[in-house]
Amino acid sequence: MRPVSVEVVAYTPTEFFHCMHCEVVWHEGGIGQKIHAEQRESALPPDLAQQYAEISSWASGLADRHGALLQFHIVDGASLEGVFKSIRYRLGKLPAIVVDGQDRCDATDLDRATALVEDRVRDRARLRAGPVAPDEGR
Hints:
It contains 5 helices and 4 strands; from the N terminus they run E-H-H-H-E-H-E-E-H. By secondary structure, it is α+β, with helices and mostly antiparallel strands.
């Protein structure tokens, strides 16, 4: 059975890196980590950073509960792929969550998103178990 696909389309923090040689020099000089830490801190405004943290926590919780039964795809809403997915799934606003390419919801309603994922996991478990044989002799 294939895992349940959970796509999160959201504005994601971006870090920029130099070539590998420059990164090594900057790291050895002790300034590489400072630059990347500053990028992480200023990558998103505070409200989007909070939203991103909540979605990350939600996804981690689901991954802890269901493991290999789930496959997460994080898509930056500002990327070409994010624009394509927004149009394809008719996402009204971001962040949004799409389950198995069919069910979608606003990522601010994580209870609904959890219910959609749990329903899909339950359906897959039933399919994996196969048909139940009727009790004989009763």
